[in-house]
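Let's sit down with a protein and look at its sequence and fold side by side. Go ahead whenever you are ready, and we will take it from there.
>
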Amino acid sequence: MKKLLVTTTLLATAVSLPATAGATITTKVLDKYLGTNGAVFHSGTVVQSDIFVTLGGGFYTDVWVSYAAQGSWQSTFGDEVDLTLGWADTVGAFNVDVGAAYFNIADDGTGMGDVLQFYLTVDHPIKVGRSTVSPFVRAEVYTSSKSGDNPDNGQFFRGGVMYSTPLAEKWGLSGKAQVSYDTGAFGFTPGTFADVDAKVTYAVTESFSISAYGKISTPISTKASDTRSTETAFGMITSWSF
């Protein structure tokens, strides 16, 4: 089973795109590595950190690292390094996010190599009182770094809504609900699945926050031979912007 980068951080930032250069360092401690294709890539505790840097002119880069608490480096599917370069800006009434990522993942003996991802997200933020609701669509294309037919190759087509709302002074709620169609990437059976995530955030300072995070994912229309089932993941997140 292969690992898959989840670019939820990039989706979340699409609601409010920074106009000037800056950086955000985010660290998640989760009870498992649950991918956006609904598969559990590592069933033990993982620490997932990324440095998201805005470069000006809408361009950004991101370095994302997942590290399994058990075992040595790259001894499990909980270990991964991903490099992303993209562009995100407002086009009319829509936010547009387009980019490419390189996933450095371990070879599990199936012959699958590192993976290239190309993606496009379009969302439309809508103010509802003090809250923001952003319907979105997203397309992701995956191709193996190795030549020839490979189980890594495939596409995801997603649609859903992102949301954020203040709860009280320094407290906020945000998250995403989406339905995705998997054409059969990473050797899984083609099918549809849904997932919902949410986090409650406390702003310790203007630049530092702590969040409690949870996610649930469930197949809607996959065959019995598929190993995916209803799964949950929970953890804590820290975020520092500068």
Remarks:
- The chain has one helix and 15 strands.
